Amino acid sequence: MNGVIDLTVFQVGLAYIFVLMVLIIVRILGIKREKELIIASIRMTLQLILVGYALVYIFDNPNPMITGLIILVMEAFAVHTVLGKYKNKLSLPMKKVIAFSMSMGTLTCIVYFLLIVVRISPWYEPQYFIPIAGMLIGNSMTGISLGVKLLLDGMISQRALVEEALILGATPQAATRSIIRNTFDAAILPTMNSMLGMGIVFLPGMMTGQILSGTAPTTAIAYQIAIMLGILGAVALSVIILLKLGYRTFFTQEVQLQTGLLDN
Amino acid sequence: MFKFVDVKYMDILDVPSLFIEKGKITTLVGASGSGKTTLLRMLNKMLSPTQGKIMFKETDLVDINSVTHRRQVTMLSQNPVVFEGSIRDNLNIGLKFQEKSLLSDDALLSMLEKVNLKKGLDTSPNALSGGEKQRLALGRVLLLNSEIYLLDEPSAALDDETEETIIHRVTEYVRKDNKTLVMVTHSKAMAEKYSDTMIEIAEGRCQSIRGCKRERSY
Ligand SMILES: Nc1ncnc2c1ncn2[C@@H]1O[C@H](COP(=O)(O)OP(=O)(O)OP(=O)(O)O)[C@@H](O)[C@H]1O
Ligand SMILES: [Mg+2]
């Protein structure tokens, strides 16, 4: 290992040749995507530059308030993304459940992971806190998003079965048991699949990044194993909270099906 | 057993007053769309009146836990619903939902015989005909051995002969244990033959049961 090769601005500039290449291909194929492509490249560059400088500042001046604020923004962004995806299909109680399960599920795992597994000090050390929280929240967001979709689909497609179960004297919990089971299973499947392929089909981004920046592969692997388990925990916890609280929003006080949202 | 006081359900039903007697067989007749199913669903709290109140054994239904109520007042839906699994699973599922102990194969088989369904317990119910599914669903609710039954057209998809057999057995079963039965039927002949009281809901959207109720005792 000869330390890290720093990229100069010129070297990074050379990488833009890829954008140029795609532009040419797109032009030849006659796909009208030039504008989006240029915007995407510029936005990506600007966003990362800004984030880079912000991180430099934040890492140099560790502050519990700032770390907390950033976590809050990440959680809010994740909740907002899920809600935006299912705009008119969610009831107000369901939206609350989404926000609650996202934050409870991830915060619990973030705290455990950083304070008990990695044992960072001070507890708000941004260099660890921010990237790890980002990974757990990002993965939970995908899990919750899938969970919401499957729960809604299940309630709509199996509505007659759920209703018949109620008629036969089932509690809402018993009436939705199979929907909840299937949804949980499907929502954690992507995480499990990525665990199965890890190291063979692909090297995870975090590990690649660490290795590129000079960390010994063994250290990088230790981190990757721990973070993968943390991700599994965060996804499973937030999805189960979502489902356990979410199914109730489909029933009224009188234990009748909450129609309306299920009708269309 | 049930007493309606100025009940309305949206603009679909208007029932100023109605009694359903304990230990009697009451039939509900009326044209399609007149509100028979709606009335039945109110009795087991799958629908709640938008106005007025329904008393059940002197208590307002509003104050009774819905799940507890449905375990006492068992309803058979108009359209049979078949759950995942075998015929055995489908017969037992009501007991399972009510957290009661499941029945032995012998008991299940004798119920299949009672509802005239000649199929094995391990058969998948998906291939059953409409009428067979309806009898499976009937068997499922009869196994619950409830005090009160609400049956929504239990014989709609059946031929005359099977209909006669099934209704005969059901009413016999109900009378033997002095159960209460409210049954929707499209057949006035059946209603007159087997019921103690017949309630007729007037054509179209029922404005009032008072005017069209025809009570008679046999
Ligand atoms: N959830 C609902 N919202 C609006 N209208 C409804 C609803 N449920 C039923 N209706 C209407 O109420 C009326 C009565 O319906 P109901 O199912 O009680 O009739 P029914 O007497 O059981 O008819 P059938 O003999 O065809 O089964 C119908 O006009 C129906 O379209
Ligand atoms: Mg009906």
Could you explain how this protein is built, in words?
The complex is a heterodimer of chains A (264) and B (218). With 264 residues, chain A is mainly alpha-helical. Chain A folds into two domains: 61 residues, no CATH class; 200 residues, no CATH class. Chain A starts with 8 loop residues before the first helix and ends in an 18-residue tail after the last helix. Chain A has eleven helices and no strands. The mean pLDDT of chain A is 92. Chain A is globular and about 70 Å long. The longest helix of chain A has 32 residues. Helices cover 76% and strands 0% of the residues of chain A. With 218 residues, chain B is an alpha/beta fold. Helix content of chain B is 35%, strand content 22%. Chain B has eight helices and nine strands. In chain B, the strands form two sheets. Chain B has a five-stranded parallel sheet with strand order 6-7-8-3-9, sandwiched between helices. In chain B, strands 2-1-4-5 form a four-stranded antiparallel sheet, with helices on one face. In chain B, β1 and β2 form a beta hairpin. In chain B, α3 runs parallel beside α5. Chain B starts with a strand and ends in a 6-residue tail after the last helix. The C terminus of chain B is likely disordered. At the A-B interface, α7 of A face α2 and α3 of B. The structure holds adenosine-5'-triphosphate and magnesium ion. The site of adenosine-5'-triphosphate has 10 residues of chain B, from α1.
Sheet with the most strands, sense and barrel status of chain B: 5 strands, parallel
Shape estimate of chain A: globular
The two chains with the largest interface, and their residue counts, are:
A-B, 17 and 24 residues
Q: What is the typical, i.e. mean, pLDDT of chain B?
A: 90
Element string of chain A (H = helix, E = strand): HHHHHHHHHHH
- The stretches of 5 or more residues of chain A where confidence is low (pLDDT under 50) are none
Number of helices of chain B: 8
Which residue ranges of chain B are poorly predicted, with pLDDT under 50 across at least 5 consecutive positions?
204-218
- Which structural category fits the helices and strands of chain A? mainly alpha
For the record, the count of structural domains of chain B works out to 1
| Quaternary structure of the protein | heterodimer
Mean pLDDT of chain A: 92
State the separation between the terminal residues of chain A, measured CA to CA: 61 Å
- Strand tally of chain A is 0
Ligands bound to this protein structure = adenosine-5'-triphosphate, magnesium ion
- What is the architecture of chain B at the second tier of CATH? 3-Layer(aba) Sandwich
Instruction: Output the strand order for the largest sheet of chain B.
Output: 6-7-8-3-9
Return the domain count of chain A: 2
| Number of extended strands of chain B | 9
Distance between the termini of chain B: 19 Å
